[in-house]
Write a structure and sequence with these properties.
Elements lengths: L1 H10 L16 H12 L17 H15 L4 H12 L12 H33 L4 H12 L1
Length: 149
């Protein structure tokens, strides 16, 4: 039973954090803010991995920048703006839903609805076309002739 519990514990997904002990701020409030911010920033080297989880050198640099800006007195939004000004919106794990990004957020669902509508219209048109079309008198005569043979 203990063995099973140990195996289940090992299989639980645990948050991976690459923050080094020398990066941690002495103030727990600032450190918590830094963790929140760095959890929302993407590592430029790693794909879909936050700088909080990444072991890349650039992620470490970004974590240090975030902490430096917080110690300097910047708000969370100012820190995120500082990083995005230098690296672009790519570093945001959750990009804004305004401006040009709105097209990207709405584009996928809109295309799905459009494709579904076109598919449904095509199916209905084909179904009604086959129901309305029957055999002409000539075709019925020819079919009867073929069936007699």
């Amino acid at each position: 039973m203990r063995r099973l519990a140990l195996i289940l514990l090992l299989l639980l997904p645990l948050p991976a954090a690459a923050v080094q002990p020398d990066e941690v701020l002495a103030d727990p409030v600032l450190e918590a803010r830094a963790r929140d911010i760095s959890a929302g920033l993407r590592c430029p080297v790693c794909r879909n991995e936050s700088i909080d989880e990444s072991n890349a050198d650039i992620a470490r640099t970004l974590r240090l920048i975030v902490r430096e800006r917080l110690v300097a007195g910047d708000s969370d939004e100012e820190v995120v703006d500082f990083v995005t000004d230098r690296f672009g919106e790519y570093v945001l794990l959750r990009p804004d839903t305004s401006g040009a990004n709105l097209v990207l957020w709405i584009g996928g669902p809109a295309m799905l609805l459009l494709a579904g509508g076109i598919g449904l219209a095509t199916i209905r048109r084909r179904a009604s076309a086959t129901e309305e079309e029957g055999l002409s008198a000539e075709e019925e005569a020819r079919l009867a002739e073929l069936l007699k043979e």
